[in-house]
Amino acid sequence: MFRYTKLTLLREIGLWVLALVFLAPFYFLVTTALKSGTEMYSTSPLALPESLDFSAFVDVLTATGNSNVLSGLLNSAIITAGSILLLIVMGSLTGYVIARGTRRWTKAAYYLFLVAIILPGQLGAVPLYMGARTLGLTGSSWGMVILYTGMLLPVSIFLYSNFFRGLGTSYEEAATIDGASRFQIFSKIVLPMMAPATGTVTIFAGLIVWNDFFTSLIFLGGSENQTLPVAMYYYIGSLVSEWNSIFAIVIVSMIPILVLFLFAQKRFIQGFAGGLKG
Question: Is the pLDDT of residue 43 over 60?
Answer without folding.
Answer: yes
